[in-house]
Amino acid sequence: MLIYPEIDPVFLQIGPLKIHWYGVMYLIGFGLAWWLGLRRAQRPNAIIVPTQMSDLVFYGALGVVLGGRLGYVLFYDLPNYIATPWAIFKVWQGGMSFHGGFLGVLIAMWLYARQIKRRFFEVTDFIAPLVPLGLAAGRIGNFINGELWGRPTDLPWGMVFPHVDMIPRHPSQLYQAALEGVMLFIILWIFSQRPRPTMAISALFLMGYGTFRFLAEFVRTPDAHLGFIAFNWMTTGQLLSLPMIIIGFIMMSLAYRYQTH
């Protein structure tokens, strides 16, 4: 049995200014995306050139932050934010939705693709391998915040979160960092090493993230104010991930049926 180390969520404090670990992890995620993007942009026939990476990351960051926050409000805690609307700005306390951030990034990439006169799926295929390590950083931020803990377990690596209770639980934040982050990155990075039909890399991202998130939800405690929302076992995260898997399969089939590079 492990004990959660109760990490101070504040990374650095200078007078009244507090820099939270959660924000630092987002900066690390954007930095990794920029660095990996530069590597992809140096490949022959890359649709993005290195000088465009700063704008690409800027658009993506806006999509992540605005979409992630609005998605959390709409999907997970709308009544609370209607009662206290100013709380929407307290992003350092957590409360970001991947699925909202994902939709925000899609909108941002659509706008960016129009700006550089590229097809939408060309741009999403380029950025898909850049995303997972940022997701891993975000999940580590969840762990540092001591939020999104797992369900009870008797496995030897079960972790007690004293601010919750004294029951050993799955460190589901770390599971998600490993699956949605590191594992998905490896899969996408290897898959994208060779030329693929347009839309195939984006499709694999949808299938991979949706599958890993769907599985991880089985050991993650559902949000207390939502609980199980279908069949007495399905969570909001699973309900939102299932369409990603289905759409990903359809996109992959279409990509290889009508191959374009």
UniProtKB/TrEMBL annotation:
<comment type="function">
    <text>Catalyzes the transfer of the diacylglyceryl group from phosphatidylglycerol to the sulfhydryl group of the N-terminal cysteine of a prolipoprotein, the first step in the formation of mature lipoproteins.</text>
</comment>
<keyword id="KW-0812">Transmembrane</keyword>
<keyword id="KW-0472">Membrane</keyword>
<feature type="transmembrane region" description="Helical">
    <location>
        <begin position="96"/>
        <end position="113"/>
    </location>
</feature>
<protein>
    <recommendedName>
        <fullName>Phosphatidylglycerol--prolipoprotein diacylglyceryl transferase</fullName>
        <ecNumber>2.5.1.145</ecNumber>
    </recommendedName>
</protein>
<keyword id="KW-1133">Transmembrane helix</keyword>
<feature type="transmembrane region" description="Helical">
    <location>
        <begin position="125"/>
        <end position="144"/>
    </location>
</feature>
<feature type="transmembrane region" description="Helical">
    <location>
        <begin position="56"/>
        <end position="76"/>
    </location>
</feature>
<keyword id="KW-0449">Lipoprotein</keyword>
<feature type="transmembrane region" description="Helical">
    <location>
        <begin position="198"/>
        <end position="216"/>
    </location>
</feature>
<feature type="transmembrane region" description="Helical">
    <location>
        <begin position="236"/>
        <end position="256"/>
    </location>
</feature>
<keyword id="KW-1003">Cell membrane</keyword>
<comment type="pathway">
    <text>Protein modification; lipoprotein biosynthesis (diacylglyceryl transfer).</text>
</comment>
<feature type="transmembrane region" description="Helical">
    <location>
        <begin position="19"/>
        <end position="36"/>
    </location>
</feature>
<comment type="similarity">
    <text>Belongs to the Lgt family.</text>
</comment>
<dbReference type="GO" id="GO:0008961">
    <property type="term" value="F:phosphatidylglycerol-prolipoprotein diacylglyceryl transferase activity"/>
</dbReference>
<keyword id="KW-0808">Transferase</keyword>
<dbReference type="GO" id="GO:0005886">
    <property type="term" value="C:plasma membrane"/>
</dbReference>
<feature type="transmembrane region" description="Helical">
    <location>
        <begin position="174"/>
        <end position="191"/>
    </location>
</feature>
<dbReference type="Pfam" id="PF01790">
    <property type="entry name" value="LGT"/>
</dbReference>
<feature type="binding site">
    <location>
        <position position="139"/>
    </location>
    <ligand>
        <name>a 1,2-diacyl-sn-glycero-3-phospho-(1'-sn-glycerol)</name>
    </ligand>
</feature>
<dbReference type="InterPro" id="IPR001640">
    <property type="entry name" value="Lgt"/>
</dbReference>
<dbReference type="GO" id="GO:0042158">
    <property type="term" value="P:lipoprotein biosynthetic process"/>
</dbReference>
